[in-house]
Automatic annotation (TrEMBL):
This protein's name: Glycosyltransferase family 92 protein
Localization, UniProt: Membrane
Species classification: Eukaryota, Viridiplantae, Streptophyta, Embryophyta, Tracheophyta
Entry annotated with the keyword RNA-binding: no
Enzyme Commission number(s) from the entry: 2.4.1.-
Amino acid sequence: MTEYENGKKRKVRNKQQVKGQFLSQRYLILCCCCFFVLLFFLSSDRISTLSVRSDSLRPSLRVPALSVLSSSMDSFHGGRFPALSVEDRVQFPDHLLLILSHGIGRGEKNLACVYRGVKEETLVLPSISSDEFDEFRSIVRCPNAPLNYSSSVELQFRGDLVKKMKKEKQSRCRVHNWEKVGYEAVIDGDTVVVFVKGLTRRPHKESDPSYYKCQFEIGDSEEKEVTQAVAAAQEVVRCVLPESLKLNPEMMFRVSVIHIDPRGRTTPALPSVARIYGSDSIEKKKSGVKHELCVCTMLWNQAPFLREWIMYHSWLGVERWFIYDNNSDDGIQEEIELLSSENYNVSRHVWPWIKTQEAGFSHCAVRAKEECNWVGFFDVDEFYSFPTHRSQGLPSKNALKSLVSNYTSWDLVGEIRTDCHSYGPSGLTSVPSQGVTVGYTCRQANPERHKSIVRPELLTSSLLNEVHHFQLKEGVGHMSLMESVAVVNHYKYQVWDTFKAKFYRRVATYVVDWQENQNQGSKDRAPGLGTEAIEPPDWKRRFCEVWDTGLKDLVMSNFADQVTGYLPWQRQQQE
């Protein structure tokens, strides 16, 4: 059994033990509460009707529960668990996102979503997933509301009695349309960068910031402050920080964007779930020397491939990793925790916003600026390789870090671009057990696109990017590497079981999902495929023009165990 699997099993056993203790304590307290309720009935002159509860997924009518039982449940959750307080709701095409004003812990499976019908009937469905969101808030994903049920979904622990929602609370329930909402904000020096859907702006172009302002609502009060935008592009608006935020470091601020049309007419602020905290504006003490090279990526369900990618690029000199998790449900957190326990500097950032890769990269550029001199933006199926090192017998360890270090003192170079070679299935029909670098060895002849490593402090204030590269400050340029110096092996067309996941959803904002019958000639699509995930008969032989074992040979000579031949990221049993 691999050390990886042993570690995973120990974590599962520990979680099961903790969960068992948690449930035992909870039900013990619940039994005590029920006992006191029974005493109340025996001493009462009247008989009340208990709520009838169904554990099925069918709609179930509820009648008012006993006030004494409701208060018992309230005190029960208030003492042992936090009250479930839904602060905002965002309607996505395939699910409803609930944002809680407090933390509940990641992976809480004992939650239920409560839907209200037009006739006050209720429907209780299990939640899809839950996660930590930021330092203070958490998120829960619920199924979309069925027909004739409201999207003003409430949350409760499974098995609890459904309470009737008060009218004043119903009026405060906010459900935001994903196509028109402010969704993230991050402080950057004396400014705040706000990420917002619903502003009509051209892709890959900067906008006139004079048409935008930011509105800051202080805590839960009606007090508001407005500041002017200083930069805008795509889904990003950068505004001056308000004085009230600097004076109230303990407060939370809701940030939204106001649009001013060319005639000077001001529209109401867009709805927003974006938050900043006054404490974030306090300049933190720098921990010393920055990391020379960091990497940021956005992923969905890439846990099985993450280990190889991080271990290999750490060997090349990457020191810090920012993983933007776009709704994964394949155990990515456990994978990251295991890597962290092995001294890889990896952090996971929950990013629940669909089709916002450009915005996510802009957000990461702001976060990484204080920690890193250089930040690479590339995917988990992309691996840097150095042909000259191989041909001349030079060591490749720390080669990527050494390369970028040569340009750190060059103030006029803000980006290093490297061409990509796309690899095909290479005759395989199942996922290669030794990883992508060893399994896929046949590629297309000509390079396709490029990947970039950038200096965050040399990017424009609008943070404009096209995923593959950022816009740089005036007077700053980029360096394009020759293929003989460095190249990116892009394992783009893998075995069909892996590749077909690309049909689910594309993460880039301005790239059409493959199920849609648009832009079928785009380079983002696989040539010859339509809009359905149907495997072509000759898939395993496609995209194969040049057999190239350069990176495979490098990996086997530097990572393989000399006795067993196994690689450190393999998940199979070792004897």
